[in-house]
Amino acid sequence: METLREFGQFLRTRKKYWLIPLLLVLLLISIVVVITAGSALAPFIYSLF
């Protein structure tokens, strides 16, 4: 949790607000990959990347 707090401070201090949408997209993609890793959809998801 300390790392997330420091990263939040970095974003506010350096005014790097454009990184927030990028990180959210990466987080959503990683969640989709983890959730579908054991299902029948896995070959279709992995073909997208």
Explained architecture:
The chain is an all-alpha fold and 49 residues long. The protein has one domain. 76% of the residues lie in helices and 0% in strands. It is built from three helices and no strands.
Set out the fold topology:
Elements: H1 2-14, H2 19-35, H3 42-48
Which structural traits does this protein have?
elongated, 0% strand, membrane, transmembrane helix, transmembrane
Poorly predicted spans: none
Shape: elongated
Please tally the β strands and state the result: 0
Structural class: mainly alpha
How many structural domains does the protein architecture include?
Answer: 1
Measured distance between first and last alpha carbons: 29 Å
Q: In which range does the helix fraction lie? A: over 70%
Q: β content, as a range?
A: under 5%
Mean pLDDT over the full residue set? 84
InterPro entries: DUF5989
Transmembrane segments: 20-46
Keywords: Membrane, Transmembrane, Transmembrane helix
Short description:
This protein has 49 residues and is mainly alpha-helical.
